[in-house]
Amino acid sequence: MTGHTAPASAWSRVGGLLLAALIGLVYGAVATIGHRQSLELGGVVVPWGLVAGLLGVAALLLGIRLVAGGRWAAAAAGVGVIAIVALLSLPGPGGSVLIASGLVGTVWSVGPALIAVLIIAWPSLPQRRRPQLAAVPASSGDAATAP
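^ Histidinol dehydrogenase, sequence as received from the core. Prediction below:
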């Protein structure tokens, strides 16, 4: 085994991109539903749902970028998140909305897109290689050969 992997076929790449977009859609829908959760501590309202949702978007996109080894899968997941947030920000048939106007709704509408741009556009760091250790011949006075 040489440690080299065969290049992925075009169909597996397309399948990976579609899977990443689907994961982004699902996470974006779940986080959109929960982004308005808040907790009142000492008279201060803490929007923990918004914070958790934005951290989750960042973790999802960063994880997909690191696991997939490139920007394309992270971009597909980002498009999925952004698309579902945009879709769910529209009023429903009865006029109800999941993303209400206000500070929390505005941050949730814009935040995932900004996070996606930041993670996708972040430059790739060069791969660090481990130095190869030269084979050292065992000497006659080596501790491993001592009686």
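The mean pLDDT is 87.
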